[in-house]
Amino acid sequence: MPELPLISRQEALKAFEKAGWSYMRRKGSHMVMIKSGMPVNLSIPDHKELDRGTLRKLVRLSGLTVEEFVDLF
């Protein structure tokens, strides 16, 4: 399994948009993304670098594998 890279919130938003997620709104210091047909929303914190554990959880919630996410990035 490839290791998740250290990426910023903006880079994560772009990668999830490539996977079909859409930016919905900003709630405090988090960006909320939605995708039709998915029962969850992604809440991406506005940090310079996302923690690998946080990013791994977002990838899991999005229905992607780590390999698929790294390919999008």
Structure in words:
Strand 1 (22-27) and strand 2 (30-34) form a beta hairpin. The protein has a single domain, classed as Metal Transport, Frataxin, Chain A. It starts with 8 loop residues before the first helix and ends with a helix. The protein is globular and about 30 Å long. Helix content is 38%, strand content 21%. It has helices spanning 9-18, 52-62, 66-72; strands at residues 22-27, 30-34, 42-45. The longest helix has 11 residues, at 52-62. It contains three helices and three strands. The mean pLDDT is 91. The chain is α+β, with helices and mostly antiparallel strands and 73 residues long. It has a three-stranded antiparallel sheet with strand order 1-2-3.
Key attributes of the depicted protein:
globular, 73 residues, Metal Transport, Frataxin, Chain A, alpha+beta, 3 helices, 3-stranded antiparallel beta sheet
Topology:
Elements: H1 9-18, E1 22-27, E2 30-34, E3 42-45, H2 52-62, H3 66-72
Antiparallel strand pairs: 1-2, 2-3
Tell me the CATH superfamily: Hypothetical protein
Helix content: 25-40%
| Number of strand elements | 3
Task: Provide the number of structural domains.
Answer: 1
Q: Roughly what is the average pLDDT, rounded to an integer?
A: 91
Strand coverage percent? 15-25%
Kindly report the CATH topology.
Answer: Metal Transport, Frataxin, Chain A
Q: What gap, in angstroms, lies between the N and C termini?
A: 15 Å
Low-pLDDT regions: none
CATH architecture heading: 2-Layer Sandwich
Over all CA atoms, what is the radius of gyration? 11 Å
Helical region count? 3
